[in-house]
């Protein structure tokens, strides 16, 4: 979620529920006509991250969308698809700005957080590409001179691609380094140079675009399910509590890993859980993290410091299939989950009124 917006794969507006909500209550977003377990999504849906209200649907992909990212200013969105392409969209009018064809399924995408003019893509065939969006020639940018390269290096291949009237150059990074599908790309929100990749070869790698090289890597014990940078507003600059500038959270097998967002490869801690974990998201302010599970359709809430006698804080029920993705909002007051039941839920994670949640825990308890 970014700037009050959320990208979800569901096609029905959330209905406002006119009662007080407590922490742990959720809004449900789903398609009433979707056959469960066989629904394939070719369209990314833009929704209000606070209320779940439908904003728009991006139409154009011809295959399932594997990943989507909103820019820091919420002006554009990038998507990666099974139709062998990545697209960049205008969030205001819903139109495709650029289509960037690839040679295989695009599993992951990331937009640079500061300048927002760089796009990185990762594919099923182990290739990592860097695009300069300012150098793409097309209907939205017809006057840009051709032949603009972003960072030639003897270890990196410069290529070009074209589709639907757009032409783009890219740099292929780290040829031969990834030994599996690149499942996630995470940009440092405070830098245009640093990002991390999570790969099916059970390795998380950190990269620096100033020399176009991998600077650190960390082997995990299982297949990586998710890898996200969790930042809660006000906790990423030597703030009270001493939290690092963001925490890179990864789920792999039955273990969750937490890395310092400032130091590539620097492990804060790893926690082994009693079940496989397809996804994890951390709220550093509350010292809690949430996961899905391969053994049930629930959202599990754990203590980051893991009291051995009482490690699980809470179990949130509502999904009817495995929860594959979780993500906290930037303010840490809500989080979103997506599951096998073709449903996205937005869960309240604070006691005070928030968005459509108009009541507090006390009001709900008293039957108000």
Tell me what you see in this structure.
This protein has 368 residues and is mainly beta. It is 1% helix and 44% strand. The protein contains one helix and 28 strands. The chain has one helix at residues 361-365, and strands at 5-8, 26-30, 44-48, 54-58, 65-70, 76-81, 85-90, 96-101, 106-111, 118-123, 128-132, 157-163, 166-173, 182-187, 194-199, 203-208, 213-219, 224-230, 247-252, 255-260, 267-272, 280-283, 288-291, 299-303, 312-316, 323-328, 334-339, 343-348. The strands form seven sheets. The protein has a five-stranded antiparallel beta sheet, with no helix packed on it. A hairpin with a 6-residue loop joins strand 9 and strand 10. It is globular, with a radius of gyration of 20 Å. The protein starts with a strand and ends with a helix.
């Amino acid at each position: 979620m970014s700037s009050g917006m959320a990208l979800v794969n569901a096609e029905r507006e959330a209905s406002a529920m006119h009662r007080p909500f407590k922490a742990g209550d959720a809004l449900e977003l789903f398609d009433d006509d979707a056959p469960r377990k066989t629904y394939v999504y070719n369209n990314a849906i833009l929704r209000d991250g606070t209320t779940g209200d439908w904003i728009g649907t991006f139409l154009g992909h011809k295959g399932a969308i594997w990943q989507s990212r909103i820019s820091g200013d919420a002006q554009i969105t990038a998507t990666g698809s099974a139709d062998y392409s990545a697209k960049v969209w205008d969030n205001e009018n819903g139109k495709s700005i650029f289509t960037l064809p690839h040679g295989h399924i695009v599993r992951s995408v990331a937009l640079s957080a500061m300048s927002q003019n760089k796009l990185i893509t990762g594919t099923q065939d182990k290739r990592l590409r860097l695009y300069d969006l300012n150098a793409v020639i097309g209907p939205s940018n017809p006057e840009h001179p051709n032949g603009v390269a972003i960072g030639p290096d003897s270890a990196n291949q410069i290529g070009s691609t074209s589709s639907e009237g757009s032409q783009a150059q890219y740099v292929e990074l780290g040829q031969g380094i990834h030994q599996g599908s690149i499942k996630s790309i995470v940009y440092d929100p405070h830098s245009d140079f640093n990002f991390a990749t999570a790969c099916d070869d059970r390795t998380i790698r950190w990269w620096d675009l100033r020399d176009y090289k991998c600077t650190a890597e960390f082997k995990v014990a299982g297949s990586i399910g998710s890898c996200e940078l969790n930042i809660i507003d006000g906790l990423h600059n030597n703030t009270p509590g001493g939290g690092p500038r963001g925490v890179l959270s990864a789920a792999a097998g039955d273990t969750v890993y937490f890395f310092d967002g400032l130091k590539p490869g620097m492990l804060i801690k790893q926690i082994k859980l009693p079940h496989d974990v397809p996804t994890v998201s951390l709220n550093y302010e509350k010292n809690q993290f949430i996961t899905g599970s391969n053994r049930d359709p629930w959202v599990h809430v754990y203590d980051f410091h893991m009291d051995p006698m009482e490690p699980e804080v809470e179990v949130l029920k509502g999904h009817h299939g495995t929860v594959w993705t979780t993500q906290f909002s930037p303010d840490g007051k809500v989080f979103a989950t997506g599951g096998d039941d073709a449903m996205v839920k937005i869960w309240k994670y604070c006691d005070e009124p928030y968005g459509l949640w108009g009541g507090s825990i006390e009001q709900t308890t008293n039957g108000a």
